[in-house]
Design a protein that fits this description.
5-stranded mixed β-sheet; 2 helices; alpha+beta; single chain; 5 strands
Length: about 90
């Protein structure tokens, strides 16, 4: 079980980024959330098995590649008892 935080920059707000990420997450055994940040970036936190986390992040990168200017990610400690994947409001 791993958890990763990813900050996406570029034209990532107002383009359906959060809805796309949440929709894609339903196809994988992951939990977490995605939200718009005040600085114009989008923050995503995802946890699950390494294969599912990697596959989701790859799918988001492919689907939203024309909007993503850059991304930064780092490992985090897993959150126990987290359920589902949600869109959070900033």
């Amino acid at each position: 079980m791993q958890r990763r935080a990813v900050i996406y920059a570029g034209r990532v707000q107002g383009v359906g980024f959060r809805a796309t990420a949440a929709g894609l997450a339903r196809g994988f055994a992951v939990t977490g959330w995605v939200r718009n940040e005040p600085d114009g970036t989008v923050r995503l936190e995802v946890q699950g098995g390494a294969g599912d986390v990697e596959a989701l992040l790859r799918a988001i990168g492919e689907r939203m590649r024309s909007n993503i200017g850059s991304s930064r990610e780092h490992e985090m400690l897993p959150v126990s008892e987290e359920m589902g994947f949600e869109i959070r409001r900033g």
